[in-house]
Amino acid sequence: MPGTSPARLTLALYQPDIPQNAGTILRMCACLGFGAAIIEPAGFPVSDRHFRRAGMDYLDHVAIARHASFSAFDAWRRREGARLILLSTKASLAYTEFRFEAGDILLLGRESAGAPEEVHQAADARLLIPLRNSMRSLNVAVAAAMVAGEAARQIQIARLADANIVEGG
Questions:
Q1: Any binding-site annotation on 39?
Q2: Which domains, and CATH codes, for the chain?
Q3: Phi, psi dihedrals of residue 152, rounded to the nearest 5°
Q4: 129 is in an annotated binding site
């Protein structure tokens, strides 16, 4: 993810397998100025028409870092000092109870299988979106938008508070 600012959020997709979801998430990254990463292998080629249609021409406005494996991605993010925040239905902490920081990486697992234990172990935090008992999960793009929105809100509030402290003395 060369060129991404450590002050912004990054959304990372672990081996995405539904091109429409990946395209939608990357479009959101382009529109909101988030960084983006795809951890290979993806279940579709980047030239896939569904991926392109979901991302529309917005894909030209987001730098997508591609990592050949989770270990390559994890080595990069550790060098950068970025926290890895995994969204998972297996987590116990609600995303609304977590304190996000600038530079966080929000990681989304595969739509079909989530994230393996290796990824869970590497995460600095694991968060869930509380659902009704009879429901299993949300669409990954919807989940990404909900959590990224909350993270961006918290980071913006923290920046404003820091600016007021500096200006107010």
A1: no
A2: 10-159 (3.40.1280.10)
A3: -65, -40
A4: yes
pLDDT in tens, 73-111: 999 999 999 999 999 999 999 999 999 999 999 999 999
Query: Annotated binding residue at 103?
Result: no
SS (H, E, C) 24-85: HHHHHHHHHCCEEEEECCCCCCCCCHHHHHHHHHHHHHCCEEEECCHHHHHHHHHHHCCCEE
Model confidence, pTM: 0.87
**Residues 115 and 86 sit within 8 Å (Cβ to Cβ):** yes
Question: Cα(168)–Cα(80) distance, rounded to whole angstroms?
Answer: 32
Q: What is the DSSP letter of 103?
A: T
87 is in an annotated binding site: yes
Q: For the chain, how big is the Rg over CA atoms in Å?
A: 16
